[in-house]
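Note to self: user wants both folds in one dump. Writing first protein now.
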Amino acid sequence: MNSALFRIKKEGKYGFIDHTGKIVIEAKYDFAANVIRDNLIYVSANGNYGFIDTNGKVVIEPRFKAALWFSEGLALVQNHEDEWGYIDHQGELKIPFMKYDNQPWDFAEGLACVKTGGKWGYIDAKGDLSIKPSFETARNFSCGYAVVNPQDGYGFIDRSGHLCTSEYYDECHDFSEGFARVIKNGKSGYCGSDCMLAIGIQYEWGRDFVEGFACVNKKGKVFYIDTNDRGINEKLTAMNA
């Protein structure tokens, strides 16, 4: 049975149909998210955001200035005083509203990025500061590490806030299959699961590892490498690079 829903817009209002074209949720919302998480959809009506289920039943009455998807059981919402907090699936406020410098992030691996006092840090699912705001920029945790910019470049921290990299990079990407792409002076390499450089910075560009291989460009040649930095079919041009 295909239970997928497809968003539609009719006369300026949003709703959903199923794979047969049957209307499942009437087009009556000012906005409806095109992504469904935890069987909930955030919608807007009369300038307020709330949540409906995949049958169109209102689960959390629209009352927020803004709302985002659920992640790890919590959804980021904004009240009409421009404060941010997090609610559970019943709409109960689990992390109290407060002012932040920027819109906080969703939760990932039990922590969420928040900016206060001009710096980024992390709160836990109770709303307590887990990692003190001390970074110019920060991203959510992935595979136990998060990309941050203390001041002189980018690196990785662990869940205690400890900087795990031995040097800074111009760019750092999230981990994929135990490796994270890093860029320095226009060249790409890969850090391993210990955040140390595992594949030297030598490529004009690189892609994330997928099923054990990553597409790279070295001196104009595009090919794949394995996790030991061994070239695969270096004489062939990689497709869809």
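First done. Writing the second protein, which came from a different request thread.
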Amino acid sequence: GSIYLGEWRNNTCTGEGIYRAINGDIYRGRFINGLIYDQGSRTSFDGHQYIGDYLFGRSEGHGTYRWPNGDNYVGSWMNNDRTGNGVYIWANDDRYEGEFLCGELHGSGRFQCSNGKKLEGQWIHGIYIKTSSSSME
């Protein structure tokens, strides 16, 4: 089953604690009424890790996400999704800095390949849209 070690108030996880879910995910941080809240971390059983802001159990605000393959994202989160401004760095050192929507490159941004080539402009749902101000170096 699941295990919680930490502060307990009014018959629920409230305060600082560590929660291990049935699936092996581990949450560390502050809990309110059984949900992680404010600053905290989640490490999944398969090596994914999020460290950052939470609101009612969901990633919300600013945070860092690391994938087991070496990819990293640092930036804004809304309702458990990468939404807002952020930086995504792939394991091969390709890098995107700009806007995201629901986890996709969406809006203004700059993509830089590990070989030095750069692409700047607009993305719509992960697809690059060439605009008059776009450039490829």
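Dump finished. Worth passing along: The chain has a mean pLDDT of 95.
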